[in-house]
Amino acid sequence: MFGLEKKDLNLLIIVALLTMLAPFILNPFPTDSALAQFNAGYPDLMQRFVIYGIFAIGFNILFGLTGYLSFGHAAFLGVGSYSAVWMFKLLSMNVLPALVLSVIIAGAFSWLIGFISLRRTGIYFSILTLAFAQMSFALAYSVLTPITNGETGLQITLDDPRILGMSATADGSIPVTNIFGLEMRAATDLVIGPWSFTFSVGYYLCALVMLVAFYLSIRIFRSPFGMMLRAIKSNQTRMNYTGLNPKPYTLAAFVISGMYAGLAGGLLACMDPLAGAERMQWTASGEVVLMTILGGAGTLIGPVLGAGMIKYFENIFSKINEATLHSWFDVLPDPMENGLVWVLEHFVGAGWHLTLGVIFMLVVTFLPGGLVEGGQRIGRLFNRTKAAKDDESAATKPAE
Amino acid sequence: MGILEVKDVSKRFGGLKALSDVNLSVAQNTCHAIIGPNGAGKSTLLNCLVGKLIPDTGSVMFDGQSVLGRSPHEINQMGISRVFQTPEIFGDLSVFENMMIPLFARRDGAYRMHAYESVASEKELVSRALQMLEDVNMADKRHMHAASMSRGDKRRLEMAMCLIQEPKLLLLDEPTAGMARADTNNTIDLLRQIKDSRDITIAIIEHDMHVVFSLADRITVLAQGTPLVEDVPERIKGHPKVKEAYLGETAHA
Amino acid sequence: MDAILLQIFNGLDKGSAYALIALGLTLIFGTLGVVNFAHGALFMIGAFCSVTLQRLLTLSHETLDPTKLDFLGNPSKIKTPYIVEWFGADAGNTIIDWSVPLAILFAIPIMLAIGYVMERGLIKHFYKRPHADQILVTFGLAIVLQELVKHYYGANPIQTPAPDALSGVMQILPGVVYPAWRVVYFCFSLAIIGGVFAFLQFTTFGMVVRAGMADRETVGLLGIDIDRRFTLMFGIAASVAGLAGVMYGPINAPNYHMGMDFLVLSFVVVVVGGMGSLPGAVLAGFLLGILESFASMREIITLIPGINQIIIYLVAIVILLVRPRGLMGRKGVME
């Protein structure tokens, strides 16, 4: 079905089920229990899961397949957000045209940057993309203020024209983003006993877009084009002497991943119609690299997992504070409790970025293949005897 | 008029004259060997043929067209495939995928964006790839990671990748370097089989005289960047100039 | 004419910082073949060495002064630094006043130690890994170092003033006055750069390192333990970055993200200068610093708005495209 092989189809179905049932899955704890702080089933956070999932899926097409490490992809995310907000200001609050414009503008922008950056490879490429992103960031803050509204960030206001919509609603407030009238922020709550689940239009739109994005990425991975991209990573000399020109392939991968980033940026703006330059900063580029690597670069599901993990832990870790830690380790003797809390408090709350850095180092050092490889290693541990028999199938398809 | 015509090619690296006025003509459907002591300019000459180096002077015509100034992938598209001294394959890909890539390159040219249909849906190319793997006795290894194979297998794979493109000219750069005798003989058999079974011109650079005399129809001896003699193997064997060039080398070594 | 001179001088202090960081980056890249994204963090740690020393020197014990009351009517507290108690008011206050230059002595052992630990503990394991992995792991390390500093010192910049004697202005040319500390910084970095070059040029150790930069394998074959020397080289590069940070404090108050800000630019500097070329790094550092300062002139900004923000990146892009090896890059390095 869908032109996919069985294994890929199963993967797609699993991802579809997970995203569609996310409001349940991510809210396993009753609302007023102590563990409710580990719930992640509220729309705002779930939207971020899938939006950054899209970002990482796209980044993976470039980095995972071709091995070109871009440190400037946040620029495309930012451009996507700006384009979407402009569409809200000028055209209407419908998200569809906004998303289309985000993808187009980000695609054009990434074509320009890719065209120049891809003249060089390796570390030069990384530094060039970094330089471009920093340049865009600096420009967004300064000269381009008429377009980006500088430090304040671009917002929608009451006097925007919105030629196909309305500048203000009947009661004089700013209209909200919608898809053909269905508001993004609209949500229904389902209460079952002590549990409460929220279903929001915004989340389901993002989830559907991510499924389409994920589906397309599977097709790209399995296509001759995807194979060529992996060939570029593997051996460019052989590629040249086989009559293939690696440059247009890499550029195409760069533009596709730029368009994914633009789509993610556009969705961010659809959920919350404002765009700021900080979205383009290189730490944001570093974050998507981390998501991809944490999950497993070059694998299909890796980036989605990575994005989900990072965003989940970001949310949970930043909420924990010293008092929470003390309450957890209450049972321990005081000196031990204080010692543990002293160590752990570095990593929680505002210290979340420290945790991020540590995870980064640990993953790159010990698990370069990311969570997917980790999972495979564990799986192999259990299946050692079985694997010995059908060794052949274990060595197949490096792209998984 | 040969399929490959090298005229007055010279190449300098700084003060070193690697090639001076090399003339070479390789006739269609023959196996032409280029031999010579170390530093004779064999590899430089080869690199000039495939677009990795551009000669300072002279011309290289292949099939009536100049190859000078074209990049390696364009030259490959003209019908020249090259096997390297150390096998260049796609190590991260499976053996099967290694066979598919040259097929796509031959059918679709240097670039075509097939990003939607799967590789597996290209039934005709798939069956050709499998057939070729069958031919070189690698069908059972098709799922293997190419990098995890033995050196001999990698070389066979590389050879198969070049052959599947059905090149007009196959360039071999010391295909038996560092091989054990038995493997060398296998390679000779494989190459002879290739030579006999299809219309193909082979240019081979080789150190091993056993290989050269088993395969070549014609031999050019290169020394210090200039062709010394060109003749059929029987007459090269006892040629005084050749002896001198090689003995000179052993005397110095 | 004076305006132009002034711009050149303005560019020199930023240029000095770029040059020093880029020098360290190049040393590490040239000797160890590692792309160190944590080098900016070393610069930042250097700056915080002087913050730390300043805090240590001003550690005080509190006494109550019953003669003065604060607004609540309690006796007000008077802080007396221990240093002042031990050495007397004059000497003590002078030491505190000179805490930034003193921090040089304080920072050298710390930076050497950090460099040693970093190389032996982490970088060593990445020699054989792809450059992308090196970039990523040092990027992670940079985040960790930066966050630790933020945790202990807070997110706000901390002033580390120059000694009184050097905080005024100086007449450098007839009619041109200029902040004294910036002149000091420039001279200081020239001294460091000169020191590093002399060290590489005239000592046996430096000779081996230079040979190692040119051809690591051959030097290894000669039976020279190149690895140990490279470890020390990493320590030296870390110290150079650290010292650049120590002395930069009075120009720009140290904050936790100053390392990242400088790192991106320093990488650009290295690329413009030519990967693996020490003179290239220094030259490009000063050149880009001066260029940036010219681009910040009011006349130029009104002509091309925002050019000061992007000039360095623009130059880097142009250079990489027309001279891919950088100004003084060698053939075969990182191609």
From TrEMBL, chain A:
Alphabetical keyword list: Cell membrane, Membrane, Transmembrane, Transmembrane helix
Positions of transmembrane segments: 9-29, 49-69, 98-116, 123-144, 201-221, 288-310, 350-372
GO cellular component: plasma membrane
Molecular-function annotations in GO: branched-chain amino acid transmembrane transporter activity
Coiled-coil segments on the chain, per record: none
PANTHER family for this protein: ABC TRANSPORTER ATP-BINDING PROTEIN, HIGH-AFFINITY BRANCHED-CHAIN AMINO ACID TRANSPORT SYSTEM PERMEASE
Protein name: Branched-chain amino acid ABC transporter permease
UniProtKB/TrEMBL annotation, chain B:
Pfam families noted in UniProt: ABC_tran (PF00005)
UniProt KW ATP-binding keyword: yes
Example of a GO cellular component annotation carried by this entry: plasma membrane
SUPFAM superfamilies in the cross-refs: P-loop containing nucleoside triphosphate hydrolases (SSF52540)
InterPro entries: AAA+_ATPase, ABC_AA/LPS_Transport, ABC_transporter-like_ATP-bd, P-loop_NTPase
Domain ABC transporter: 4-249
Molecular function (Gene Ontology), one example: ATP hydrolysis activity
UniProt entry keywords in alphabetical sequence: ATP-binding, Nucleotide-binding, Transport
Name of the protein described by the UniProt record: ABC transporter ATP-binding protein
Species for this entry: Sagittula salina
UniProtKB/TrEMBL annotation, chain C:
GO biological processes: amino acid transport
Gene Ontology MF terms: transmembrane transporter activity
Superkingdom of origin: Bacteria
InterPro entries per record: ABC_transp_permease, BCAA_transport_permease
Protein name in the entry: Branched-chain amino acid ABC transporter permease
Keywords carried by this UniProt record: Amino-acid transport, Cell membrane, Membrane, Transmembrane, Transmembrane helix, Transport
GO CC term, one of those recorded: plasma membrane
